[in-house]
Amino acid sequence: MNFHVLTLFPEMILDGMHTSIIGRAMEKDLLTIEAVNIRDFAFNKHQKVDDYPYGGGAGMLMQAEPVYLAWESVASKLAARPRTVYLTPQGKVFDQKMAVELAQEEDLIFLCGHYEGIDERVLEEVVTDPVSIGDYVLTGGELPAMVMMDAISRMVPGVLTNAASGESESFSENLLEYPQYSRPEVWHERAVPPVLLSGHHENVDKWRREQSVIRTAMYRPDLLGKAKLSPKEWQLVHELKKKTVTEKESETEQLQKAISGQEEKDENI
Ligand code: ADE
Hints:
- This protein has helices at about 10-15, 20-25, 65-75, 95-100, 120-125, 140-155, 200-220, 220-225, 230-269; strands spanning about 1-5, 30-35, 50, 60, 85-95, 105-110, 130, 185, 190.
- By secondary structure, it is α/β, with parallel strands linked by helices.
- The protein has a domain at about 1-155: SPOUT methyltransferase, trefoil knot domain (Alpha/beta knot, 3-Layer(aba) Sandwich).
- Strands 2-1-6-5-7 form a 5-stranded parallel sheet, with helices on both faces.
- Strand 8 and strand 9 (about 190) form a beta hairpin.
- It starts with a strand and ends with a helix.
- Adenine binds near residues 134 and 138.
- Adenine binds next to strand 5.
């Protein structure tokens, strides 16, 4: 996988991506990361790449030509027209499925914007995938590009040393990952669930799957619709829902009692 990042801050990308698993994958030539400085393609002696927006409005825009020339300097070296991701809050929201899909590409270009954005015409010409990493606005596309490159890299064969660990993790089946424990067996009076010490692999797998279902139902119920659950697991989800509704009702009852008690006291004053 070859990542090519078009940016005004190449050092931010290179400094941020040379650590740990990604750094090791680069040493093993499983990944390359090239940061192309858009400023190097400015066509004035001050290396200015931004200008005022036509029609007025706040802020400055990145101009089309330097962005295009930076893109072309990469694209012209490649055999096929590369997929080009533009990081923008207006894009499709990034998820694990997209990470798996983009990991199939040989080359990916990331275009990082700054200021108030980029001239629309160059976006129309080069961008294939406008992508957002979530519903919030950042000051530039570098952090989102790094988030995406990290998630995509993990899906490139050979990058994770434990081949199975990319599969049985959060989101792989639209379920969150089960809780994990390591030594010691008891820490701060909290014991490791006994089933994990039993050496009974089938029971361990069963327990983990159940924990995944419970976690997803509790923290990310929106994912359950896409997860493949057995009738027994759906039963478990229903029971969890009943339990939380009953707990909520009893909390509400207690609150109501407290309020009524206070009102009675007020009346007696
Ligand atoms: N640029 C600014 N905010 C962003 C976001 N949330 N996702 C992707 N790119 C961005």
